[in-house]
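> example.struct
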């Protein structure tokens, strides 16, 4: 009898812990379920066709005019711009955008492509599942970053290192007006210690102060178990016009970004990824402001113009960016009171170099004449270089580049 009672006590104890962890997130009950279902209906638009991806995702091909962007009150009568007027360095020209065979040597794709493609006039949207929303702290916060997750290089106060739990290893430029940024980013699959942590590599276009008025456009790759329910490396975008308070979200999880491309799904996995001392893979991302319409456009690789953020979404970025950042970010939740072992980049320090450490190469900015240029006066920043570090360089092939990242917890990063 005693054995049975002990087993029951263990089960009850475990169940309490599970219930508590659930309660700490979304809670439960009919009201909560209704709210989640309502939110799912808002996000998952009617599909013309659905494609099952080998990684477990479902990709819905949604008519271009039914996408989440058009839930925005200011976009009710918006006429979709199917192509930018200008590309950095001149008029937009499909032929100029198409890639050379040299660049195609290691193509990156999305796993869902093996099972089909989305028809013309539709866009691929990763279907949001109930579990995705339930992992969030609230329905309202689903798909949003926490506040204070932007590195503020100049005023890093050692006492504030883990105030927001976010740590970075970045290169940056400031002090000018920037109309875009570009980078080729090495792709890895970093290990994440806790499901509420993430690791990403991205570029940031920033406007405003680092207060409540911060404007940001971000794009890159990330591993985020909380957001996606797995440890896959995924393409993502983000935007906010009020320092992550009430505006903006990842990918297409709110109204804002208008997608025009029917081949690349935001938030979907990308493959292959780089392996230590083995094949290296990277992705190119370009974000620029169309001088005619003023919208911020995004291009993935050399082939895919994905869509745009309408300029009215922003205050400061309606004109230009005042700072560009490139690099890695992780969440350090300090499990057990120690630094997380969540990896940034490849999980190896910059000094290990090519094939071991992760890199950004050919980093560039777009100037007021809509030309891509090498950035001037690059600074670097990391809160704790013993945990994650960054080292810059430049050469003929890679232009301005840097290696970055690290393992997190190690003997020098307790």
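> example.seq
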């Amino acid at each position: 009898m005693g054995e049975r009672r002990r087993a029951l006590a263990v089960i009850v104890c475990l169940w309490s812990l599970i219930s508590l962890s659930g309660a700490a997130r979304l809670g439960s009950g009919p009201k909560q379920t209704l709210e989640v279902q309502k939110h799912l209906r808002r996000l998952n638009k009617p599909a013309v066709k659905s494609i099952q991806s080998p990684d477990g995702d479902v990709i819905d091909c949604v008519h271009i005019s039914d996408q989440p962007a058009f839930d925005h009150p200011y976009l009710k009568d918006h006429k979709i711009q199917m192509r930018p007027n200008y590309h950095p360095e001149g008029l937009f020209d499909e032929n100029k955008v198409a890639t050379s065979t040299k660049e195609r040597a290691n193509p990156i794709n999305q796993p869902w492509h093996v099972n089909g493609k989305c028809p013309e006039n539709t866009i691929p949207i990763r279907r949001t599942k109930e579990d995705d929303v339930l992992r969030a702290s609230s329905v309202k916060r689903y798909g949003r970053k926490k506040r204070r997750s932007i590195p503020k290089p100049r005023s890093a106060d050692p006492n504030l290192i883990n105030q927001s739990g976010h740590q970075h290893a970045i290169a940056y430029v400031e002090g000018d007006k920037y109309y875009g940024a570009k980078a080729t980013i090495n792709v890895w699959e970093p290990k994440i210690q806790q499901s509420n942590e993430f690791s990403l590599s991205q570029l940031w276009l920033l406007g405003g102060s680092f207060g409540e008025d911060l404007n940001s456009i971000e794009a890159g790759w990330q591993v985020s178990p909380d957001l996606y329910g797995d440890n896959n490396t995924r393409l993502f975008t983000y935007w906010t016009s009020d320092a992550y308070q009430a505006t903006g979200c990842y990918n297409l999880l709110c109204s804002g970004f208008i997608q025009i491309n029917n081949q690349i799904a935001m938030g979907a996995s990308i493959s292959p990824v780089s392996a230590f001392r083995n094949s290296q893979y990277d992705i190119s991302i370009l974000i620029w402001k169309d001088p005619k319409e003023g919208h911020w456009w995004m291009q993935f690789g050399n082939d895919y113009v994905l869509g745009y953020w309408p300029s009215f979404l922003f205050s400061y970025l309606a004109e230009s960016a005042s700072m560009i950042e490139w690099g890695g970010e992780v969440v350090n939740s300090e499990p057990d009171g120690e630094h997380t072992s969540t990896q940034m980049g490849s999980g190896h320090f910059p000094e290990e170099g090519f094939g071991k450490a992760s890199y950004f190469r050919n980093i560039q900015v777009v100037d007021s004449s809509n030309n891509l240029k090498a950035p001037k006066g690059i600074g670097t920043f990391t809160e704790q270089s013993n945990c994650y570090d960054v080292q810059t360089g430049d050469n003929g092939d890679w232009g301005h580049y840097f290696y970055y990242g690290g393992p997190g917890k190690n003997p020098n990063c307790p």
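> remarks
Confidence is low (pLDDT under 50) at residues 1-24, 99-104, 155-161.
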